[in-house]
User: Fold EBP2 protein from Formicarius rufipectus.
Amino acid sequence: QDGLKQCLAEFSRQLTWVERLDVTLGPVLDPVSQNASNTDAVDPENDFQREMSFYRQAQAAVLEALPRLRKLQVPTRRPDDYFAEMAKSDQQMQKIRQKLKSKQEAMERSEKAKQLRAMRKYGKKVQTEILQRRQKEKKNMLNAVKKYQKGLSDKLDFLDDEQTSSQGNKKGSANQQTKKGPNAKRRYKNQKFGFGGKKKGSKWNTKESFNDVSSFQSKVAHNKGPGKARKGGKKALNKRPGKRARQKMKNRAR
Assistant:
């Protein structure tokens, strides 16, 4: 005990409180019971009671020290232009940021891979169901054909089902085409220039036009009409003979 007192006297200094800032108090009053909590009643094994006792003791110290600091005109709030260096350097923070980013990207990749696997499983399941249904339909049709060939059945319902299914598919495709229709540009051109029509072979003869001879005129066809004679005139009389006729004329002259 004498040694402890001697050591205390050696390192103790008689300084003002503002230099020491030591506050030793008991816990603050309990707001529920309005009594100071008994330190002996705190169970050291109970973490909640122990931490609450520390918290109340700190509250009591703050309530005691703040008025004394304000009385001594010591600022207790951080100024607006306060600047302090971070405990960790920028390089270390950059490494941490890159590591967090890589972790996030890895999680996103794994999530996307899970979604792709789930979609593949679903697509495979649908495909297998369709194949099984087709195989079942094919098997049923083959069994019906065998029964018909053996004479066990005289019904041809399977052919009707097949035809109706094919017709249904054709109708569905035709309805899709009719619903689609021409676009706005095509409709505008049809309205402006008409719907066109068949161009190639439009002047070919048909059976009806070939047999129709009501507009045939023999005089006009064989250049015997009055109009043709007038048209020819002297030029028709002074027409140069052909090459063979000229050759015969030369032979006669010799």
Summary: Residues 1-32+41-72 form one domain. Residues 170 and 176 are 10 Å apart (CA to CA).
